[in-house]
Amino acid sequence: MSSPRNLSGKTAIVTGSSRGIGAGIAIDLANRGANVVVNYTSPRGEVAAAGIFKDIEATGSKCAVVQANLALTPDLQKLVDAALAISEHGKIDILVHNAGTGDDSYLADLTEEFYEDQMNVNLKAPIFLTKLALPHIAQGGRIVMITSVSARMGIPQQTVYAGTKAALEGICKVWATELGKKHGITVNCVSPGPVATDMWTECEPDVIAELQPAIDATPAAARVGEVSDIVPIVAFLCSEESRWVTGSVLAFAPFARAMHIRSIPMWTGSSDNYAYLVIDDKTKDAVIIDPANPEEVAPVLKEQISSGKINLTAIVNTHHHWDHAGGNNKLLAHPEFEGKPIIGGKDCEGVTKTPKNGEGFKIGDIAVKALYTPCHTQDSICWFMEDSTGRVVFTGDTLFHGGCGRFFEGSAEEMNTALNKTLVSIPDDTKVYPGHEYTKANVKFAISVLQSEPVKKLHSFAENNKETQGKFTIGDEKQHNVFMRMDDPVIQKATGKTDPIDVMAKLREMKNNFKPPPDQKL
Fold this sequence. Notes:
With 522 residues, the chain is α/β, with parallel strands linked by helices.
């Protein structure tokens, strides 16, 4: 769908507009009829800016490309002059402060040079560019500042970056009053969470891990944002329709962090286990689930503790098998973990507490409930967790994405109860975190029984993603997990059974004996 030409004749400056969000904004404003000043700083940006110039010219709008180092105040005048040169009425109508730099540093390593580099681009430049442009901004002009949820999330290493973005949000409210009554200018902030740009893909893994809670808790959808999610909001704030909106911060992720789950792969390539670190970000209270291989788990926990990121309160187990609970005592032998309680089934190594079915405990603000699911082992417990931002369930070896565990200590009737009475009853939006990465193998069997669209989608995802934990919900499992579809006529036909328990028993037998053809295709 083409954009409405509701900005025809307007002139806009978009800083940092050779790539990423800025490029998207510049092209979108041009599509809506605005003449646009595109800004870049480095030689890398020059080539990209030339491409943006061509895209804007193709819309029929005018474009000026300006190399300007925003850290240098004299360069800011170049942007104002370029805007006036392409303006159809000698005025600037829209000023979008998008440029920013965001390197990370712990406070102990912070230097004045690091501080000044970010302050000059992220904060000083918007202030003084606005000052220079102000005499030329038309009555009813628009100022939009791109900030960040980092301003409110308390992410380690972002002392300067978070400070600059928080300052812009404060300035937004000052200018909304100061410039609104005198000049009729509206001033607003757009505050994205993580957005899929080249800057995001270049982030260090630990930074991405820190931002995962914001991604998981984003109300609109638990995913990284796209540039196309941001630009229409900016366009609205630049339009006449936004005339009654000023001093606002439009955020795309929650203000407060909540439940954070960090997966710790163990024995990758052999048993492909997962341990899970569950953190309540508000209190920093945390538990570690199934830390069966301390050699891989302990270094992660020690780093988190030493940096003040977590307060480890307990070890939690889903069942007693060695590859889930067999590392408990060895982990407790480390001084950092000495005396921590072990919460799990009655047969787990060193267990100190076994909640009754339906009972639980708290991890900060996270409510935890034990769901007894005997079959794989008789002490199997699935741990359902919930806070204000979402729900998850840790299913051990009871439920996998697209599959279930073997009936080592139980029966088909017990597994049917575990999956299709107990787990099926929790909310559909509950994310599933299984004990192993078995999805690819599970879906090969599933597709041999049920070639439905949900199963095909799971197959495609498994083929293209090394890790699948937490990417699917109970609602998804009801659609693509053949062990949770006992009433499906196709599955009943494949098993030759109709009674749910008989279907479960036969399906598990078929899975145990299944050997996928080497050329299996969908």
